[in-house]
TrEMBL record:
Protein name (Swiss-Prot/TrEMBL): Uncharacterized protein YbjT (DUF2867 family)
Origin organism lineage: Bacteria, Bacillati, Actinomycetota, Actinomycetes, Streptosporangiales
Stored SUPFAM superfamilies: NAD(P)-binding Rossmann-fold domains
InterPro entries: Ergot_Alk_Oxidoreductase (IPR051604), NAD(P)-bd_dom (IPR016040), NAD(P)-bd_dom_sf (IPR036291)
Annotated ranges, domain NAD(P)-binding: 7-186
Coiled-coil regions listed in the entry: none
A Pfam family recorded for this sequence: NAD_binding_10
Membrane-spanning intervals of the chain: none
Length: 294
């Protein structure tokens, strides 16, 4: 059996590939640049050049494939339909927690963003379901890898500058998401399920900075900005205004509690183990934050 992994060099996709290889599976990775991907993926993985925007590359990627880990893409291009026609019997969809949200007409910047995300991810899920093939949808919440956006400043200044120090969500380790995806690809226990996966508890931004500091063995200072100052800083760094607006609202939403996304027990229910903590994630990524401080 050949399993195709799309998005194979991404944060979650790399772990999916490793999990499948570790389970002794034949893995094909659809990547844009096979030579660059070779250094990021395990030995024995078949690399095939492919791109969701180039349908002419799909036949080689889909040849003799029975199961697919499907990374989100512009689903109106028809990859899912072509995959089903080529003989794929099972899809495990990389979706998002927003796919499980109720439709909303909230006019706020965050409300509009979440509705756009819900429509996009639920649209892909519905396309998969319409094939009549086996499916499982994996819906991660906010990923801990968002903290990598602080890496440059932590490397150079050992400082995080953000609004709302007490804002936080139950950030999920990418390895947890991948582990559930691998189980869905290899066993029949998760057919027809849609799993929202989060970390175990809310971790505030100040706590995230402290955990990263502990992981690298140096204090990382959290400097709280006003929302207006943070927005100006992000715009100066090239962040689009609409994105800056919903990011501010996203952080404000989780100052008290976890806002739009509460912790789920999904990972523990499936694996029998508690989710990896943010401290564990920081330790796993310590090298990304190390460097010469100013």
């Amino acid at each position: 059996m050949t399993i195709l992994v799309t998005g194979a060099t991404g944060n979650i996709g790399r772990h999916v590939v490793r999990g499948l290889v570790g389970a002794g599976q034949r893995v094909r990775a659809m990547v844009r640049d096979p030579r660059a991907a070779r250094t990021r993926l395990p030995e024995g993985v078949e690399l095939v050049q492919g791109d969701f925007t180039r349908p002419e590359t799909w036949p080689d990627a889909l040849r003799s494939v029975e199961r697919v880990y499907l990374f989100p893409y512009a689903h109106d291009l028809g990859f899912v339909e072509k995959a089903a026609a080529a003989g794929v019997r099972r899809f495990v969809t990389h979706s998002a927690a927003a796919a499980g949200f109720a439709p909303s007409d909230d006019p706020s910047a965050l409300g509009r963003h979440l509705e756009e995300e819900r429509r996009a991810h639920r649209g892909l899920e519905l396309e998969v379901e319409a094939t009549g093939r086996e499916w499982t949808h994996i819906r991660p919440g906010l990923l801990a890898v968002r903290a990598l956006g602080w890496a440059d400043r932590i490397r150079t200044e050992r400082t995080v500058r953000e609004p709302y120090a007490t804002s936080g969500y139950p950030l999920v380790h990418e390895a947890d998401v991948a582990e559930v995806a691998v189980a869905a690809l290899l066993t029949d226990e998760h057919l027809g399920a849609a799993y929202t996966i989060t970390g175990p508890v809310k971790v505030t931004q100040a706590e995230q900075a402290a955990a990263i500091g502990a992981a690298i063995g140096e204090r990382v200072r959290f400097e709280e900005l006003t929302p207006a100052r943070a927005r100006a800083l992000w715009l100066g760094e090239g962040c689009p205004p609409k994105m800056a607006d919903w990011l501010i609202e996203l952080l404000a939403d989780a100052v008290d509690g976890t806002g739009v996304l509460a912790p789920t027990g999904t990972y523990e229910e499936i694996t029998g183990r508690p989710p990896r903590t943010f401290a564990r994630w920081a330790g796993d990524h310590a090298a990304d934050f190390l460097g010469e401080a100013a």
